[in-house]
Amino acid sequence: MQGADTDTVAAALERGDPLPGTGGFAGELDGSLVRDVLGRYPLFVERRVADGNAGAVSPAAWSHDPTALADPRSFPAGHIRDDSGTRQRWSLPSPEPFGDCETAIERVRTAVETSVDAVETAGLAIAFSGGVDSALLAARLDVPLYVAGFPDSHDVEAARSAANLLGTEVRVVELTHDAIERAVPEIARATGRTNAMAVQIALPLYLVAEQVAADGFDRLALGQGADELFGGYAKVAKAPEDPRVEADTVRGAQQEVIASLPDQLERDVLALRAAGVEPVTPLLHDRVVDAALRLDGDLLVDGETRKVALRAAARGSLPEEIASRDKKAAQYGSLAARELDRLARQAGYKRRMDDHVTQYVESLVQ
After folding, report:
1. Is there a contact between 305 and 326 (Cβ–Cβ < 8 Å)?
2. Per-residue model confidence as pLDDT tens digits over 312-348
3. Which of 245, 249, 255, 242 is nearest to 292 (CA)?
4. Phi-psi region for residue 276, left (φ > 0), alpha (ψ -120 to 50) or beta?
5. Which tens digits make up the pLDDT trace of 29-60?
6. Angle, vertex CA 200, rays to CA 282 and CA 280, nearest 5
7. 2, β-bridge pairs
């Protein structure tokens, strides 16, 4: 079992508790396979198991690493597989929101600070973009900071300025075309994904992780989950007008994007492990998830301000300039997406072609 002790998982199964106080879990428990409600740890089974009827699953038919299986299929988050077959055991709760703003912000602050402060710092580095999410980690954990990007990228500039405000330094992993060309097929093979967006997102993380591992660290802390949990996406802020979400409220849109986490986390964990580090994600601890799910819509988004409650809670740890700072998605802030597109076009995969970057990625894997 990865991520939690078996007694905690067994109790969560018995109670049907989706948030039992862990940072996620996945693996085998008394002959059954289980994966937490947010899919924070990868778990895979052979296709014959995924498509088959009830029955015991042999140790050779499942793994945390898809490359260890002949025909892997992702085991669904929140599910159990036992003698009765595969079925959902946990679903994301929809609790009533906190009664008042002050209580909500204090609960978020306590959950975030407790989760970050509990992280063991031995062998740890931080993937640092200079935004509020990773800065919360940097302000409370005395470990090295790393950022990946091309020299003129937004993320490099933002990370340097935020590190200066925090009175520390950040190591820049300078991206190059050669590094991207080498890393793309490695990411695709490790994650089993060749679509352009998945590879673009994983690229800066993977290349930071490689450098972190080369420098002797085996764990990488990230601010993952904050955008999904706390209303960091434009499509959440614009609900229900944004066609990318079905929900008719901001809280409903928040739940939609949280439901996308298992797929995203699977990609990122596999990429980081392939690069030689284990991800550490304190902002995805159950206590943080529980607090985020209890926020009213105006504590997620207020006008042009996103992640309202998280920013308010972060002001106890961060300078105002960082707490209120917006950020770009890593694939854009690092310029990895732009330069991967450039490489695809240089290789003859023009934008008029259908999904030209994905075609380019597939050519590198063959």
Report:
1. no
2. 999 999 999 999 988 878 888 888 899 999 999 998 9
3. 255
4. left
5. 998 999 999 999 999 999 887 776 665 677 78
6. 15
7. 26
Q: What is the pLDDT of residues 181-230, one digit of tens each?
A: 999 999 999 999 999 999 999 999 999 999 999 999 999 999 999 999 99
* Tokens matching residue 183: 């890393």
> If you count DSSP H runs as helices and E runs as strands, how many of each does the chain have, helices first?
17, 14
Number of domains within the chain: 2
Q: Is residue 343 part of a domain?
A: no
Tokens encoding 352: 């008029």
CATH code at position 269 = 3.40.50.620
Tokens of 107: 């609960």
Burial status of residue 83 (CB atoms within 10 A of its CB: 0-12, 13-18, 19 or more): exposed
Same domain, 214 and 143: yes
* Strands (DSSP E) found in 83-181: 85-88, 124-127, 145-149, 170-174
Look over the chain and give the mean of its residue pLDDT values, rounded to a whole number. 92
Contacts of 17 (CB under 8 A, 6+ apart): 11, 90
Q: Give the three-class secondary structure for 191.
A: helix
How far apart CA 65 and CA 3 sit, in angstroms, is 15
105 and 81 in one domain?
Answer: no
Surface-to-core class of residue 353, CB atoms within 10 Å of its CB (0-12 exposed, 13-18 middle, 19+ buried): middle
